[in-house]
Amino acid sequence: MTEQDLIAACRAGRREAFDELVSRYYDRIYRLAYAMAGSQAARDLAQETFVAAVKAFSNFRGDSQISTWLISILRNQCSLHRRSERKWNMAPLDGENDRVSAPKPREIETGIRTILDRLKDLPEELRMTLVLFYIEGLKYLEIAQAMGCPVGTVRSRLFQARERLRASVADPET
Is the pTM of this model over 0.90? Predict the structure, then answer.
């Protein structure tokens, strides 16, 4: 099924088309959700993205690729998630600190974890731009479409994100 066929079938409300949509794009959306919000929220955010897409498919104009449209929906879902996190403070579960600690990761994993931890400290726009460019391999124009901004802004955000990440990794005290 081509992307145009998929769009037409989804607009027509065909269940198998929505199944195909999820099949094609779930992994990408999940990876982005994981990079944006962490492992705890990634599955829920991916699922909420597809639910929102199903509800809004009649509004999809087809000006961009489905993948960039889904990424923009994910961005909105991440924003909603962050707002709700600020509203609700979760109480710790009894016995939560009684767990056995995980084995110490290998040295290379420690370096990657450090970078990923520092990535989470970046503002959302910078983090999303960096993830879309380096992890998802999107081009500037695709990122601009997904984020709803000009290509120049994508370039600027990418530069800022790299500089902040570089400084953050170089200076572990920040």
Answer: no
- Options 1.10.10.10, 3.40.190.150, 3.30.420.10, 2.40.50.140; which CATH number does 106-174 get? 1.10.10.10
Using CA atoms, how far apart are residues 131 and 80, in angstroms rounded to an integer? 19
pLDDT digits (tens, 9 = 90+) for 87-117: 555 555 666 555 555 555 455 566 666 777 7
| Domain residue extents for the chain | 1-86, 106-174
Answer yes or no: are the C-beta atoms of 32 and 131 closer than 8 Å. Answer: yes
Three-state SS annotation for the chain: CCHHHHHHHHHCCCHHHHHHHHHHHHHHHHHHHHHHHCHHHHHHHHHHHHHHHHHHHHHCCCCCCHHHHHHHHHHHHHHHHHHHHHHCCCCCCCCHHHCCCCCCCCHHHHHHHHHHHHHHCCCHHHHHHHHHHHHCCCCHHHHHHHHCCCHHHHHHHHHHHHHHHHHHHHCCCC
From CA 17, how far away is CA 9, in angstroms rounded? 6
CATH code for the structural domain at 1-86: 1.10.1740.10
